[in-house]
Amino acid sequence: MSDSDDDDAPHLSSHALAALLEFYAEQKQHRDPNGDDKCNIGVIEENWQLSQFWYSQETALRLAKEAITAAGEGGRKAFAREPQSWCQFSKLGCCALTPLTVPVAHSSRVACLSTPSVYQKLRELRSERLSVCLFEFDRRFAVYGEDFIFYDYSHPLDFPGDIAAHSFDVVIADPPYLSADCLKKTAETVRYLTRGKILLCTGAVMEEAAARLLGVTPCRFLPTHQRVLANEFRCYANYDSGLDHDV
Fold first, then answer.
1. CA nearest 42: which of 149, 107, 145, 117?
2. Burial level of 56, CB count in 10 A (0-12/13-18/19+)?
3. 37-46 pLDDT, tens per residue?
4. pLDDT tops 50 at residue 31
5. pLDDT recorded at residue 241
6. DSSP letter assigned to residue 240
């Protein structure tokens, strides 16, 4: 190539180049709001030996939104005494100090039990008042850092010492295997973690056992997966969930 060819090649001004780079950055952010491409479901492939079958994007998003709603927007409220609150007494023409009880917001907590695709959506949606933990056997998801807690359903209560009983507002679980033993042990974990609310995704054949172990009933919403599965799957809840509405 001659020098004249180089001279004829198009060049971008500094402003145009900056605009182009900004466009590429926005596109990357749109694809991955958290900058965690390596962590997204779809990037981490299903491992069928671990009985992993990712939910469709629509199902993962619906379950994540339901978990947030069930956990309570802005978290549970505690009440604290504020001793330095001023109270005006206009009839007496004076001011006085009086204790005032004020609500204090606490973070809502959601536990994702063998549901990494729901966790990923919660990660995208969560605010500073929502805390999410992923209990998962597959150590590839350890890239999520402190949110990741290694979990083996065959040892249902084998947790780190800082995981207290009944410390999550909502637990959403999907036992990895359609077996009575797997559901029984997963249910033991769920009962330990939850403060009350339970979302369960498992096969329709497990309905009777799920009701007996966790007191859940089927929801009208039907979950779907990225791949077609041979077994019919259902969502279950032990409370009046949004998954029974707008279906």
1. 117
2. middle
3. 444 544 666 5
4. no
5. 95
6. -
Give the residue carrying structure tokens 């609150």.
85
Q: Which residues of 200-213 are buried (b: 16+ CB within 10 A; e: fewer)?
A: bbbbeebeeebeeb
CB contact at 8 A, 222 and 235: yes
Is residue 67 a contact partner of residue 241, using CB atoms and an 8 Å limit? Answer: no
What's the length of the chain? 247
Of 151, 155, 146, 158, nearest in space to 173 by CA: 151
C-alpha 47: how far from its chain's center?
Answer: 21
Mean pLDDT of the chain: 76
Q: By the 8 A CB rule, do 122 and 67 touch?
A: yes
**Contacts for 104 with CB less than 8 Å, ≥ 6 apart:** 77, 78, 79, 80
Model pTM score: 0.70
Whether the per-residue pLDDT at 88 is higher than 50: the answer is: no
The type of residue at 1 is: M
For the ranges 4-8, 55-59, 143-147, 217-221, the one whose mean pLDDT is highest: 217-221
